[in-house]
Amino acid sequence: MIQELFTTLFHVIVPLSLPVIAGVLLDRYKQIDIGPLVTLVLYYLTPVLIFERLMKADVSYHDVYLTLAYSLLSLLFLWAVSNGFGKLFKLSSSDTAGLTLISAFTNSVNYGIPLILLAFGQAGLDKATVYIVLQMVIVNTIGIYFAARSHFRIKEAIKSVFSLPAIYASLLALLLRSFQIHLPEPIDTGVSMISAAYSPIVLAILGMQMMNVKTSSIKNKERVTF
User: Fold this and answer.
1) Structural domain harbouring 104
2) In whole angstroms, what separates CA 84 from the centre of its chain?
3) In a domain, 25, yes or no
4) CA 193 – CA 216 distance, rounded (Å)
5) Which of these, 21, 88, 91, 153, has the minimum number of CB atoms within 10 Å of its CB?
6) Has residue 102 been placed in a domain?
7) How far apart are alpha carbons 76 and 104 in whole angstroms?
8) Structural domain total, the chain
């Protein structure tokens, strides 16, 4: 049992680590600007990946309902826990809101997608794609409310959701699936090629971001505290 666990971890962690290490080396010796790469991922690779997965995902409406129920129940539970800790430790409303944001909302795309793919295969990624799309909607509506409830506007939240290209990719995929429309083979091949580029690029970006984490302010705070 333990051997199987370590074998699984080895086959998941090592493939994930290689692109991250490549990103670390690129930042160390080439100092690449991450901004354009992040834009590339957000507006190009992520929408195509989600579109492809939703087009090919072997999921039922039952899976969608369960994922939606889980997402909402998880959100409510973690919100209640965060508020409980806020009252217990007498945190300010802004600190409680911050605690809620980091506890109840997930960044399930950049690192989550390649991790799920390696750990659970395409079947796991199919179901995870539904969760990712739901999280995008929740984070950009309810998440915005918690982050800026004093000047929250429903119109702005909806606008924020529909500023994400992945939402349009999701809607297009659901529309094509509803009418049982399949992409021509050359287009499907091109979409698959773009989708396959997602994981190594976002993991390399993660490596670059790790190299740019500033620790000086943390060290200064530690000196003041202790």
Assistant:
1) 34-206
2) 26
3) no
4) 41
5) 88
6) yes
7) 8
8) 1
